[in-house]
């Protein structure tokens, strides 16, 4: 048979062509198999995926643990939903910075969509996101550097916060609310041109509502809603959340309406004014730009409140808790402040002369790791990353825990050591793996504002007060275990604030 084929020239040719095609196909398929190799990961169960292999109460830590076994790029299934996890400084940076486009979309889950309907900055993509992000960045920058407005706003708020702490006259007290109000007022002054009294009931309700929304979002029933959105109306948490969102919108709409009615295009009082003035310019010059509409204004403002209040307040609470826990560190910060600044108001330009204080703030942010998995990203177009194929639309968690605690980057990842940010002469040094604000296209938009706030609030408070555990509680007994929500907050515990002067 074989001989016959060879003897006949046409069949020989045919045979050759077939073999050739088969070989080509084999090479091709093994090549594309390699191209399309999915990231490794624990074997998922039907329906449940890997839900039983992770600890949902400390998801970031258990994903960090899985990365030891499966490497820096791996996949896990939450129910039927596939998520690709990025772990370790090198990998997270390579993805978010070197492949910024492919890894730069936001995952807009049903809950996130309910918040802003795809408008605003936090939970939007494409052109609308790009335009609003650019606008918010330039506007905040104008308020920040050009005219020093934000520094003045923060310093004014420092006085109110200090006064509030003084009222407790050195007795153990709960600083949570006052710190939230202070952080919220800074955003409010920037957005609306006004701050609120801490006693103002409407203001208290606004802050409380935002906080409740954050907690509801992290609840188990809303995670179920994300997988089966049609269940929404049956879930109490979902109904509560929607009510919160609607009430919040009504409050903000009222304030915005007032600003609209008193708008003078020559005088920009705040972020809302800047938006309205830009909108008017575009309309006057007949430039077609569909992004400057009322919904985008409302949702962008709401996003900046939501992203800027809880994060900053939680960071400050961690800083104070670390000071009470590590009194020798607190003493060194106070010694530096007394020596360099004395008793006058601290200003941002003092930071460069306060290397130890700066290192303590950085180390607090690193160890507190308040946004452990950033916000979920999504792949914007098919990508092959570190040899693995990841499809467009796949959800991605950049595991910031694995960056801030990366053993190859930090000498003592699990302990509080300001020396991570100091050289041998005590000068401040930057560290590449310091990434609490994430990196790349989606990195925190409020980073520079947040850094100014934390620096000024922290130093002002430490100039005025020495923080200690309540009477009868030792430093060792202060609990550094975080409460897990969307952000990692300190376990609720009271502290004392002793006046230093
Ligand atoms: C210590 C305080 C803060 C921390 C630790 C923090 C951290 C973060 C992180 C980790 C993200 C997600 C980045 C990603 O998805 O890769 C983020 C996003 C964001 N942050 Fe912050 N943030 C802080 C304060 C602020 C403040 C004060 C503002 C507003 C003035 C703000 C506005 C935003 C916005 C708008 C986004 C979304 C950016 C986008 O999707 O394009 N943040 N932040
Ligand atoms: C991660 O691993 C460490 C050490 O093996 C273990 O103590 C810890 O409980 C694990 N954490 C989670 C959340 O699985
Ligand atoms: C926010 O709500 C949670 C639970 O509802 C509570 O534990 C937390 O202290 C609240 N924070 C503020 C600032 O009210
Ligand atoms: C402090 O107040 C917050 C917000 O009201 C509350 O959630 C927390 O449990 C309080 N902390 C203590 C130690 O009571």
From TrEMBL:
Pfam families: p450
InterPro entries, per the entry: Cyt_P450, Cyt_P450_CS, Cyt_P450_E_grp-I, Cyt_P450_sf, Cytochrome_P450_fam2
Family listed: Belongs to the cytochrome P450 family.
Cofactor(s) required, per the database record: heme
Membrane-traversing stretches: 12-33
SUPFAM superfamilies for the chain: Cytochrome P450
Organism classification: Eukaryota, Metazoa, Chordata, Craniata, Vertebrata
Name of the protein: Cytochrome P450 2K1
Keywords annotated in UniProt: Heme, Iron, Membrane, Metal-binding, Monooxygenase, Oxidoreductase, Transmembrane, Transmembrane helix
Organism: Xenoophorus captivus
Gene3D superfamilies: Cytochrome P450
Source domain of life: Eukaryota
């Amino acid at each position: 048979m074989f001989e016959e084929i060879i003897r006949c020239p046409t069949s020989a040719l045919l045979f050759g062509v077939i073999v050739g095609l088969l070989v080509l196909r084999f090479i091709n398929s093994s090549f594309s198999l390699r191209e399309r190799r999915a990231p490794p990961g624990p074997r998922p169960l039907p329906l449940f995926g890997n839900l039983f292999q992770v600890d949902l109460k400390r998801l970031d830590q258990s994903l960090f643990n899985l990365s030891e076994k499966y490497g820096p790029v791996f996949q896990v299934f939450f129910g039927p939903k596939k998520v690709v996890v990025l772990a370790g400084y090198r990998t997270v940076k390579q993805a978010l910075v070197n492949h910024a486009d492919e890894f730069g979309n936001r995952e807009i889950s049903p809950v996130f969509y309910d918040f802003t309907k795809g408008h605003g900055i936090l939970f939007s993509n494409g052109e609308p996101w790009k335009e609003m992000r650019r606008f918010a960045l330039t506007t905040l920058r104008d308020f920040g550097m050009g005219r020093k407005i934000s520094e003045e706003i923060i310093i004014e708020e420092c006085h109110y916060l200090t006064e509030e702490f003084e009222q407790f006259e050195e007795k153990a007290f709960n600083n949570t609310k006052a710190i939230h109000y202070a952080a919220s007022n800074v955003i409010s002054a920037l957005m609306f041109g006004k701050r609120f009294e801490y006693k103002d009931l409407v203001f208290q309700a606004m802050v409380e509502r935002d906080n409740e929304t954050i907690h509801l979002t992290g609840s188990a029933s809303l995670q179920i809603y994300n997988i089966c959105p049609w269940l929404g109306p049956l879930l109490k948490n979902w109904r509560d959340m929607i009510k919160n969102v609607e009430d919040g919108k009504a409050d903000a709409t009222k304030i915005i309406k007032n600003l609209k009615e008193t708008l003078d295009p020559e005088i920009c009082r705040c972020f809302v004014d800047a938006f309205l003035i830009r909108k008017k310019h575009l309309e006057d010059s007949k430039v077609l730009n569909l992004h400057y509409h009322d919904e985008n204004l409302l949702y962008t403002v709401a996003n900046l409140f939501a992203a800027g209040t809880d994060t900053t307040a939680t960071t400050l609470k961690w800083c104070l808790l670390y000071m009470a826990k590590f009194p020798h560190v607190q003493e060194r910060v106070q010694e530096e402040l007394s020596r360099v600044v004395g008793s006058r108001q601290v200003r941002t330009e003092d930071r460069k002369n306060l290397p130890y204080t700066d290192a303590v703030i950085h180390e607090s942010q690193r160890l507190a790791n308040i946004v452990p998995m950033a916000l979920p990203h999504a792949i914007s177009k098919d990508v092959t990353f570190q040899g693995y194929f990841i499809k467009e639309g796949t959800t991605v968690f950049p595991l910031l825990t694995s960056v801030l605690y990366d053993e190859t980057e930090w000498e003592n990842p699990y302990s509080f050591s300001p020396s991570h940010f100091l050289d041998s002469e005590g000068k401040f040094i930057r560290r590449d793996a310091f990434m609490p604000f994430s990196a790349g296209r989606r990195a925190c938009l409020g980073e520079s504002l947040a850094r100014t706030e934390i620096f000024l609030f922290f130093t002002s408070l430490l100039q005025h007060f020495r923080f200690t555990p309540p009477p009868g509680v030792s430093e060792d007994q202060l609990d550094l275990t975080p409460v897990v929500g969307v952000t990692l907050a300190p376990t609720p515990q009271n502290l004392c604030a002793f006046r230093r002067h």
